[in-house]
Write a structure and sequence with these properties.
Elements lengths: L2 H10 L6 E9 L3 E6 L17 H12 L3 H6 L4 E6 L4 E6 L14 E6 L6 E4 L14 H6 L3 E5 L2 E4 L4
Antiparallel strand pairs: 1-2, 1-3, 3-4, 4-5, 5-6, 7-8
Length: 162
């Protein structure tokens, strides 16, 4: 059974889970943050000094749940963990061997899902397609899709929808 099918089966077999805790290790290479979410009142306020990673942590959570791997790759961290209310968790780990900023190699990210009873473990590698990583120059996107304006290193704005 493929990991995608197994992942879907695991997701469908459970009731809705709530996030209990978010942990990030080595955010920007220096910060370790743990955010315990208020499960009773269902509101958690995240506060801290500027440039300490509040928005980046929210982007990691959004990137994970919306399958935006480029957002996850763009934020420098070593390990990102989401713990759910049933004590199952997912670890998002960046491959530390692909840190060279001058290299065109994107960091590899692995998703390790562990069930609450620790019996079901699943690792998902979104970087792989039949054992090969697809790679192409980002400038090709500008050439093949008219109406795109590049607004960041891996972000474009489709101008006809402004």
């Amino acid at each position: 059974m493929s990991s995608r099918v197994r992942l879907s089966l695991i997701a469908c077999s459970r009731e809705i889970m709530r996030i209990k805790q978010i942990t990030v290790k080595h955010l920007f290479g220096i910060f370790d943050h743990t955010i315990n979410l208020n499960m009773e009142e269902r509101i958690t306020i995240i506060h801290g000094k500027n440039s300490f990673g509040k928005t980046s942590i929210l982007r990691l959570v959004n990137g994970f749940f919306n399958l935006k791997y480029s957002d996850i790759r763009a934020i420098p961290f070593q390990k990102f963990t989401i713990i759910f209310d049933d004590n199952s968790f997912v670890d998002v780990v960046k491959d530390s061997t692909s840190k060279n900023k001058k290299s065109n190699v994107r960091p590899k990210i692995n998703f390790n899902f562990t069930s609450s009873d620790q019996k079901e473990k699943l690792t998902f590698y979104p970087n792989l397609l039949d054992g090969k990583t697809i790679s192409f120059p980002l400038s090709m996107i500008d050439d093949f899709i008219p109406g795109l304006d590049r607004v960041g290193s891996e972000k474009w704005l489709y101008t006809p929808t402004k």
